[in-house]
């Protein structure tokens, strides 16, 4: 109970987790299975899904739980609809009770090196990959009168940004914009919207993105030691259970949330005011160091650009 309000309990509910074959999504799927939910994981690569499903199976609490994997991409409306259709089938066609939008990808890089195709792809891998399944799921929830939950996954880079993240941050800001609009609109239907803002997650995706991440970005990020996917999953679920709209769970994410809070519900607690004051003093100082770091990289960066024929 939180102030007399009953906590949300995943037991017996059907939870769809996109990106459920790796990283945050897989950890969340395992956790939900442990908590007695019916879990459907959705991702593209079948081999990874098969392996992941075994791990989710190992967390089963009762023979009644329906634990299944579906191979679909969710970055197009058509595929997201097909994925939701398939996941609903074993549940008599009923739409899921909760949708956890963990699918996504990051390809950091310098802005001037991007092409139209790359930037469109990045928007698909950050924004559309969450917007399409959210659209089809919410249509179903409203049509079927299901007072469900839709949980978006942004990033602290949906609160602020920096060098190297021009292909990624816009989509994560967009996810925030969508969540803010839907939180308000879905009051009409009793559908709860949540959005999590993780810092670095030590996931398979993180290992991949680091292969292309600019050196200067890696250097600035050293301040954030990162969290294991299980830790982020546990905090995300805790936030959903408590009914938090913006879900943040560590010093960095609390500070950015409190300092960019706007009128988002639930961000005016006493602790948020403390983090706001910390941000008020700490963030400009930190940012000054970041700008210095970027400027110190200028010389090396121009050498790199020249070697690629991108500057004189
Ligand atoms: N790692 C980090 O530092 C941070 C990550 N985040 C966000 O958290 C979420 C999870 O990240 P992380 O755990 O690192 O991810 P991983 O890269 O480790 O796993 C991504 C999962 O999403 C699936 N996926 C990717 N694209 C699609 C698609 N188009 N359709 C269906 N499934 C897809 C992948 O499977 P497959 O490729 O087989 O489809 C895989 O299951 C992402 O939204 C990410 O942006 C936020 C903050 C920090
Ligand atoms: C007083 C306040 C001090 C604040 C210190 C802030 C330090 C922030 C470091 C940058 C963190 C970047 C995380 C990226 C996560 C992500 O989304 C990517 N991994 C995906 O590509």
Account of the protein in words:
It catalyses: sphinganine + NADP(+) = 3-oxosphinganine + NADPH + H(+). Helices cover 51% and strands 10% of the residues. It is an alpha/beta fold. It has one domain (14-268): 3-Layer(aba) Sandwich (Rossmann fold), CATH 3.40.50. The protein has a 7-stranded parallel beta sheet with strand order 3-2-1-4-5-6-7, with helices on both faces. Helix 5 (169-185) links the parallel strand 5 and strand 6. The model has no long low-confidence stretch (mean pLDDT 96). The structure holds NADPH dihydro-nicotinamide-adenine-dinucleotide phosphate and 3-Dehydrosphinganine (VSD). Residues 18-19, 21-25, 42-45, 48, 73-75, 102-106, 129, 153, 155, 198, 200-201, 203-206, 229 line the site of NADPH dihydro-nicotinamide-adenine-dinucleotide phosphate (NDP).
Topology summary:
Layout: E1 14-18, H1 23-34, E2 38-43, H2 46-57, E3 67-71, H3 77-88, E4 98-101, H4 116-144, E5 149-153, H5 169-185, E6 192-196, H6 204-212, H7 215-221, H8 229-242, E7 246-247, H9 251-259, H10 270-296, H11 298-307
Parallel strand pairs: 1-2, 1-4, 2-3, 4-5, 5-6, 6-7
Helix pairs in contact: 1-2, 1-8, 3-4, 4-5, 9-10
